Amino acid sequence: MKTDIKEIFGCQVFDEKKMKDYLAKDTFRELEKTIQEGKPLNPKIAEAVAHAMKEWALENGATHFTHWFQPLTGVTAEKHDSFLNIGKNGSIDMEFSGKELVRGEPDASSFPSGGLRATFEARGYTAWDPTSFVFIKNKVLCIPTAFYSYTGHALDKKIPLLRSMDAINKQALRVLRLFGHDEVTSVKTTVGPEQEYFLVDKKYYEQRKDLIYTGRTLFGAPCPKGQEMEDHYFGTIKDRVQEFMQDLNRQLWKLGIEAKTEHNEVAPAQFELAPVFSTTNIANDHNQLTMEMIQRIAKEHGLVALLHEKPFDGINGSGKHNNWSISTNTGINLLDPGNTPQDNAQFLLFLAAVIKAVDEHQDILRLSVATAANDHRLGANEAPPAIISIFLGEQLTEVLKAIENDEPIEESGTEVMRIGVDILPKIKKDATDRNRTSPFAFTGNKFEFRMLGSSNSIAGCNIMLNTAVADVLEGFADQLEGAENFEDALHQLIKTTIKEHKRIIFNGNGYDDSWIAEAEKRGLLNLRTTPDALPYSIKPENIALFKRQGVLSEEEARSRYEITMEEYTKIVNIEALTMVNMARKQIMPAVMGYSKTLTETALSKKELGIETEYEEANVKEISAYLTEAMTACSTLDEKIKTLHSITEFDKAAYYVRDEILPAMDALRAPCDKLEEICDDEIWPFPTYGKLLFGI
Ligand code: ADP
Ligand code: MG
Fold this sequence. Notes:
This protein is 48% helix and 12% strand.
């Protein structure tokens, strides 16, 4: 096995270096321009580019090609076509045309469209996004594409993401002009997503219908050891897992993904992988590939990766920290405080923009991470709460307070701080950041949005984040462009922004109950569940915002609302059906058998005149829980039937939240009790102990 990262890195990617090697000079230059400007491919060079790609792909063992896209299901889709073409005279050619590279026409009728594409018009189109490199995966040449309907509506997560990046680019450039940065020609948001996941042994996984059908355990009593010893986090990685990680890294490196950090997470059998950050749309493609590779490589090691947000009750869930910043093409990170008064002023303006954006648009940020699975984390007394707030750290908060009140900054000494004139005290990465309870934390030169779920596409939350910040920057630019004295106006703008939006800043413990009361006092939103959050996506103000920033049309916003609400219902429906199935076909028969054995033992003992107190008590307890489980199972079954009779998608989602989920809890409770009191030998599927400590 080659271990030279340099040699394998990007070997499966048709990147700039390979483009240079395989293309004529002029064609390469034209393509490079397309990529830098983010424009669609010039049809004149498409033929040559396609030919070069095919040559490279064939040399590297590919036999097929596919337009690789990201429909609203949140996972990637592909349909493979072979390069093979048999001519009239029986000749065999390998073909791939410019037309095939630029545009695809998958039958789109089976992807969710939320009414955007009438079923009689099943056509959907895919178009290459040249800013994302073509790559080979499993002998298939994959072309990252955007997916849109016949009528031009975005049917995927990629198009709105690219639009939101355009929006922020446009407004940030306006702001940078005011600071005299004429050399900057483009501004892009950057993202480094830290991916969490669990690994379980494949042989145990295969014995659990809940894991197979839903990705999480629907039953399961706690095992004697959980995560209380805190011995797993950053602990030594077991050999088997280490081997898996090595394979995974190699695969990712080959795909040009800079997998960098790996470690054990808080919970037993939980791990994390972090790449080096990149431009948001690339980070998005890479994260999709990373999730796919984690799952695929795990299988090769006899493991199954669980990307679900809450695979185990009572054990930490999995998230995906979305590290986010804004960078210029000249390499300046706009969320880096900088070293000169001018840089500091600019930093404070962008910081103020983020603060205002997060405060004004808590709703769309919250709903961008709302899924049935993530509801088990957010607001459920772990991970970040469902309330959005910003952690800035004590030091930066002090600076903002001083600006707001025209006070001197303590550390720097005497004078009142003047933005654009004075230097900020060096802002250190705050140690308290390690508490991890803040949903949106400033970590030195970037923000870390921690509410995103582990299985979620990162597109959604970045679309919202970019859009919100773009909108605020637009307002700022409008205001400052018209100002007579830029420095005064800037100072005033930052000051008022802090004053008006400081309620969103919270440096305390987000897990604390008192925070919920405090947040309510501050008027912050607390949207606990998915159906509480999603309707905010079609609030008139938000539809206007998406339109204003050119990110989503009203139809696109409404379709997404419908799709995500339906998805919530569908997921819980499958979970509920799986529970009924497992309870009836596995748990109850096993427990009845066990209780029969106990009863028989008791009876024979009695015949011999032996004390049977223990057996009797045990049988009685089991019977009581069994009755409770049977009743709960019937109730759940009835409620599922009612759910199926509800035709409106929003009513169905509310019914799931208010009726189905509590009924599922009511069934789980007695079953978990039964697991605790019955013999391990008779339990019909592997317990938490085996799943969490069995790798
Ligand atoms: P931790 O959060 O564990 O302290 P780091 O802060 O080093 O780890 O980085 C976490 C993630 O943030 C990494 O994926 C890293 O590449 C990413 N990151 C660092 N700088 C930026 C940036 N300017 N924009 C986006 N992501 C970034
Ligand atoms: Mg982090």
